[in-house]
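Example S7 (C-alpha cells).
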C-alpha cells in the first residue's frame, strides 16, 4: 500500500497543496496532521507507523513535513525500514529508502543528524557564553537572601546552633545550611 503523510504546523495553515501532491503520487491513504514537526510525538504519525507493514511505501511532500529534526527523521526512517516499509520524499528525491541505496540514504541521514547535533551544541555553548558575559546567572535561585545567608552562617559558626533549627527558621533543609560558604 502507498501511504502519504501531510503536515502543517498550525490550524491556520492549509493542507490542500500537500494533499494534491500526495494524491498525484498515487497515495491510497493519507495521514494528515496540524501540529509542529519539532517533536516526533504526533498522533497521526503514530497511527501511520502502526499501519505500515512489509512492502508499504510512505510518501511525504518534503522531508520537513515528516520532521524538523534530522535525528528524529533518521529514527522515523529506520522504524519504517524495520517495519518493512520504504520512505520517499517528493521534494528531495535523494530521500528514497525504497531503492537499492536505502542503506546509503540512512547513513547520510545519520551523518546529517550527527552534524546537526554538533551545530546545536555549538550554538548552545555560544549562547551560554554570551549570556554569562552579559551577567546572566545560571542555576537555581538561592533559597536565602544575602542577609539571611550571612545571618545563618553567623548562627551556625559563632552561636553553635544546630543546622536543623537554623533551617527550620528559614524554611530550608539542614543540608542547605550546611552548604553555605563561610
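Recovered sequence:
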Amino acid at each position: 500500500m502507498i501511504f502519504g503523510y501531510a503536515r502543517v504546523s498550525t490550524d491556520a495553515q492549509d493542507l490542500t497543496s500537500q494533499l494534491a501532491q500526495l494524491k498525484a503520487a498515487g497515495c491510497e491513504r493519507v495521514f494528515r496532521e496540524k501540529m509542529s514537526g519539532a517533536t516526533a510525538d504526533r498522533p497521526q504519525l503514530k497511527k501511520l507507523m502502526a499501519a505500515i507493514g512489509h512492502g508499504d511505501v510512505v510518501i511525504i511532500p518534503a522531508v520537513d513535513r515528516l520532521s524538523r529534526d534530522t535525528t528524529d527523521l533518521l529514527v522515523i526512517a529506520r522504524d519504517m525500514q524495520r517495519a518493512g516499509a520504504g520512505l520517499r520524499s517528493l521534494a528531495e528525491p535523494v530521500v528514497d529508502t525504497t531503492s537499492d541505496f536505502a542503506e546509503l540514504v540512512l547513513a547520510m541521514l545519520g551523518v546529517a543528524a550527527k552534524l546537526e547535533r554538533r551545530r546545536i551544541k555549538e550554538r548552545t555553548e555560544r549562547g551560554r557564553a554570551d549570556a554569562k558575559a552579559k551577567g546572566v546567572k545560571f542555576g537555581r535561585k538561592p533559597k536565602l537572601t544575602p542577609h539571611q545567608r550571612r545571618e545563618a552562617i553567623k548562627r551556625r559558626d559563632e552561636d553553635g546552633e544546630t543546622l536543623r533549627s537554623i533551617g527550620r527558621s528559614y524554611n530550608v533543609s539542614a543540608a542547605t545550611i550546611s552548604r553555605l560558604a563561610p
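Notes on this example. The first strand starts at residue 2 and ends at 8.
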